[in-house]
Specification:
Blueprint (H helix, E strand, L loop, with lengths): L12 E2 L1 H6 L3 H10 L4 H10 L7 E2 L3 H12 L5 H8 L5
Length: 90
């Protein structure tokens, strides 16, 4: 069979701990400190850390909105957002 061009690849879904490992140690520490004063950041990570959450879907609009917020606030840059959306822990 011939390859299908422009095939839609589903966005990765990953365990919450794996999702957090997509961020560097520096990024995680910086955001952990900022959670005390940044309600939006705290809200997002409180959902990620909820023990009932089975996986983080990188294709969800809410997840992408949260990553856009992280870029807007300077916690990560646009390039890092793209790397995070691959779902590959490096």
């Amino acid at each position: 069979p011939e390859p299908i061009e422009n095939a839609i690849v589903p966005a990765p879904k990953m365990a919450p701990v794996e999702f957090k490992l997509l961020f560097t140690s520096y990024e995680r520490v910086r955001m952990a400190k900022a959670r005390a004063t940044d309600e939006t950041l705290n809200d997002f990570f409180s959902i990620v850390e909820d023990p009932r959450l089975e996986f983080v879907d990188l294709g969800l609009v809410s997840t992408q909105d949260a990553l856009n917020y992280l870029v807007y606030k300077g916690y990560i840059d646009q390039e890092r957002k793209g790397e995070i959306l691959t779902g590959i822990v490096v």
